[in-house]
Every structure is written in C-alpha cells, then in structure tokens.
Design brief:
Blueprint: H1 2-8, H2 18-38, H3 45-70, H4 85-113, H5 121-127, H6 131-165, H7 167-180, H8 186-205, H9 209-233
Length: 234
C-alpha cells in the first residue's frame, strides 16, 4: 500500500515550465513598474545609481522566489548547482569579451539610430561618488545584480525555454527578453550580447554560477573603465 502511494505521488518537474516562467515574469514586471515609477523620485544621481543597482538584483531574486514556490520548491532545478572551475574561468574571460563586444555593438546601435544618451550615467555617477559609493556600487552592480538577473533570466527563462524548445529558441529568445527588459536604448544591444553568452554558458554547464561570474565581470568592467578614464583625463 505504501509503495502504491509513493508511485501515485506527483513528481516535480526537472526544469521550470510555463507556470514558473509566467509567474516569475509577472512578479518581475510588477516590480519593474514599481521601480520605474519610484526611482525617478530620487534626485541625487549617486544615490539613484546605487539604488538602481540594488533593486535590479532584488527584482530578479523576487521573480525567482515566486517561480520556485509555484511547483518545484527547490533551487537545483533552476540551475543552482555546483559549477566546475573551468566553467567559472570561461565565464570570467567571457565577461571581458562581452564588455568589449557589447561596447562595439552599442556604438554601432548609437551611430545607426542617432541615440547617444548615456542611460547608465547614474551608475557611473555612483561609482565616481567616493570610496564608499564605489564599494557599494561594485557590490550591488557586480554581485547582487548579476545574482538576481541570472537567477531569473537564465535560471527560470532560459532554463525553461531550453528544456521545452531546445538551444536555438532557448538561447536567442531568452537573450532577447533580457535585452528588452533593459529598455529600447543602446544598452539593449549590450544586454543581448550578455544574454547570448550567459545562456550558452548555462546550456554548457547546467549551472547559473558561470553566468553570474560572466555578468559580474562585465558589470564591474563597465563601472570601472569610465571611472579610470575620467580620473586619467582629470
């Protein structure tokens, strides 16, 4: 009798599906709208930059939490598995490559569309706001933001699409969703490059950690390079 009950018990999906992707997407969308409405009320660019980086990570973690609670109730199915050292090393190298390629793509986008607004000016202001602000922006931008965004966009979205539709749809569509989530601006093209690289890393390693490393290196470089250039020009 006990064995029959065990056999009849529902099994948890091995990867997130549409219920997790949709629930996480709604949670991310609602939090995105709240941030979009409230963040402009912060007038100090240094404070706004740090807050923006912090909430970027928090939104992804909130969306992940909602997705986890739908059916699976465990993090392993969302890619929170141990990664091999070589996966992490490749992630770090690709983080630099993503920054360089993303910069080139962003320049091409700006020249093609004529849109040259620096949409990450507040983040750069936060990095240039003194040692404490720089430390906070690096922790928020190179640790928390990658953790949150990779948790949702790779651990939920790319993971679910890869499991259901294979590599082409999983990689390209998840990267496109990630890019659009950053707005229709030059950063969209940068986000698409990061999304492609991290989705490929996730497919290769089965873990979100290499993508988090890649994303963190990319973001840290994006914060530090303008700061170093500005100090050198001063």
């Amino acid at each position: 009798m006990t064995e029959e009950l065990i056999d009849q018990s529902p099994t948890k999906p091995a990867a997130p599906g549409w219920p997790e992707m949709l629930a996480g997407g709604v949670a991310y969308g609602v939090s995105f709208l709240l941030v979009a409405a409230l963040l402009p009320l912060v007038t100090d660019p240094v404070v706004a930059g740090n807050v923006g980086l912090l909430v970027s990570g928090a939104m992804g973690l909130f969306a992940l939490a909602v997705a986890v609670l739908i059916r699976i109730r465990g993090l392993a199915a969302f890619g929170f598995r141990r990664a091999r050292p070589r996966h992490l090393i490749v992630g770090a190298v690709l983080g630099v490559a993503a920054y360089l390629l993303g910069t080139i793509v962003a320049v091409i986008y700006a020249l093609t569309t004529g849109e040259i607004e620096n949409v990450q000016g507040s983040y750069q202001s936060a990095a240039a706001g003194g040692w404490w602000s720089l430390t906070l922006s690096l922790v928020a931008g190179a640790v928390l933001t990658p953790l949150g965004e990779e948790s949702f966009f790779r651990g939920v979205i790319a993971n679910g699409l890869l499991a259901k539709y294979g590599a082409w749809v999983g990689v390209l569509v998840s990267a496109a969703i990630f890019a659009v989530a950053h707005g229709i601006n030059p950063i969209m093209s940068v986000a698409f490059v990061v999304g492609i690289f991290t989705a490929l890393l996730f497919r290769w390693s089965g873990s979100v950690w290499p993508g988090i490393v890649l994303h963190g290196v990319n973001n840290a470089t994006a914060l530090l390079v303008p700061l170093v250039i500005g100090l050198s020009a001063a």
